[in-house]
């Protein structure tokens, strides 16, 4: 073990150079904490008494305008937009308006209604330009140009009886709120990525509106299969594509085991553990702050990958350690599920479906890994060609995340 560690860390060796390359790649590809992270696209649909509607969507407009992911450093995005000429920025803004018009549908009685798009926070997050001879020269500019709100406005067709909303799969899952001006309460629904909402009646009885506000659901009792389907999709989405940390952990388990049975033991221990803490945390029995859970999850990823580098066999303690790490990952899943929310009258259904979606996502990762390198698993160079470089990358990313989440998370 000591000789292997020396090979990995000695300056000038191929392994040390490989480690440096992995570190540089990790710094490039890992999401930074300075970006706006959106687990949900919070969307408010306001139906006005004057016959118009307004939809406010919260998302990273700077990232959308530049065509990059929402985890890129917000200051970098803002600087890039500020560097554009007036004409170039106007062109980007016009393109972003058409982006929303193409990918968002507001339907009345099943027919899409046209709307105009504006960005009410455009420029409001920018500090004043520094003036010569004042202390303002040292004042930094805030990290946003377009802001975080896209506003869609249009007219409600005369005689319309119901409204529905849909955002394309290019948006994160939607936390939808529908309000009618001048009426009590409101309706909220959680939509999977690309999933249309139910049609909402444009006129609600006050009693129904109050009930929906209390229950955080639609006026009628949600259909159990509908709830199960939505939360199953959300659980799967949290692994693929949104759960890079959980994907790396599962891949770390996959890399050490060349046979199915040891791998299944590890995955079973992991599944049992995160199911346990997910249930306990969801029902308020066990709680742990995310600023503790998230760095520990990152360290669990690094540990599994480092152990892959230091040993070639599955030790008896590995499933027990994986079980302990699964408890941590379950708390991470619970944090996400807490953000998504659970329908009061179908909490157990939603919880089981979400956990089932997580399991399907993990199994999909394993199947994809077998498809990618399964034919190499019994080759004499499998460890050198696949296990060592992949584990190095995973270990560096895990350590990078642990440091980032501890000090800047």
Question: What would you say this structure looks like, in words?
Answer:
It is a single chain. The protein has two domains: 2-30 and 233-407, no CATH class; 41-220, no CATH class. Helices cover 53% and strands 12% of the residues. It is built from 13 helices and ten strands. Strands 5-6-2-1-8-9 form a six-stranded mixed beta sheet. It has a four-stranded antiparallel beta sheet with strand order 4-3-7-10. The model is unreliable at 1-38, 127-141 and 204-222 (pLDDT under 50).
Features:
2 domains; disordered N terminus; 409 residues; single chain; globular; 12% strand; six-stranded mixed β-sheet; 53% helix; four-stranded antiparallel β-sheet; alpha+beta
Radius of gyration from CA coordinates? 25 Å
The poorly predicted ranges are: 1-38, 127-141, 204-222
- The domain count comes to 2
Biggest sheet layout: 6 strands, mixed
Number of helices: 13
Strand line-up in the sheet with most strands: 5-6-2-1-8-9
> What portion of the residues fall into strands of 2 or more residues?
5-15%
**String of helices and strands:** HHEEHHHEEEEEEEEHHHHHHHH
Round the mean pLDDT to the nearest integer and report it: 78
Strand element count:
10
Oligomer: single chain
Distance between the termini: 34 Å
Net shape = globular
Please give the share of residues in helix: 40-55%
């Amino acid at each position: 073990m000591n000789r292997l560690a020396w090979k990995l860390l000695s300056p000038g060796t191929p392994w040390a150079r490989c480690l440096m390359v992995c570190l540089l790649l990790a710094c490039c590809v890992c999401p930074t904490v300075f970006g706006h992270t959106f687990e949900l696209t919070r969307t408010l649909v306001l139906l006005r008494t004057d016959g118009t509607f307004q939809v406010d969507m919260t998302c990273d407009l700077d990232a959308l305008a530049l065509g990059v992911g929402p985890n890129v450093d917000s200051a970098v995005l803002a600087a890039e937009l500020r560097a554009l000429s007036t004409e170039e920025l106007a062109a980007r803004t016009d393109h972003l308006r058409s982006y929303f018009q193409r990918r968002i549908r507001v339907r009345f009685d099943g027919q899409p209604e046209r709307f105009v798009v504006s960005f009410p926070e455009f420029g409001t997050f920018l500090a004043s330009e520094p003036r010569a001879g004042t202390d303002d020269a040292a004042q930094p500019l805030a990290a946003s140009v377009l802001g975080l709100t896209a506003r869609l406005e249009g007219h409600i067709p005369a005689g319309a009886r119901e409204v529905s909303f849909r955002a394309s799969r290019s948006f994160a899952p939607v936390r939808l709120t529908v309000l009618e001006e001048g009426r009590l309460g409101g309706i909220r629904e959680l939509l999977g990525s690309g999933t249309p909402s139910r049609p909402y009646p444009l006129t609600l009885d006050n009693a129904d509106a109050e009930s929906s506000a209390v229950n955080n659901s639609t006026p009628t009792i949600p259909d159990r299969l509908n709830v199960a389907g939505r939360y199953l999709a959300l659980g799967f989405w949290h692994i693929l594509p949104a759960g890079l940390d959980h994907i790396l952990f599962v891949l770390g388990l996959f890399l050490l085991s060349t046979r199915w049975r040891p791998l299944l033991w590890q995955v079973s221990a992991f599944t049992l553990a995160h199911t346990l803490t997910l249930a306990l945390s969801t029902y308020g029995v066990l709680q742990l702050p995310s600023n503790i859970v998230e760095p520990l999850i990152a360290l669990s990823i690094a540990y599994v990958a480092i152990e892959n580098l230091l040993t070639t066999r599955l030790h008896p303690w590995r499933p027990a350690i994986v079980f302990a790490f699964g408890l941590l990952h379950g708390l991470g899943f619970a944090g996400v599920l807490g953000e998504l929310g659970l329908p009061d009258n179908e909490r157990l259904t939603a919880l089981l479906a979400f956990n089932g979606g997580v399991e399907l996502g993990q199994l999909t990762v394993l199947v994809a890994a077998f498809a990618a390198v399964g034919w190499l698993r019994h080759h004499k160079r499998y460890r050198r060609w696949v296990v060592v470089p992949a584990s190095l990358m995973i270990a560096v990313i895990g350590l990078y995340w642990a440091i980032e989440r501890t000090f800047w998370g």
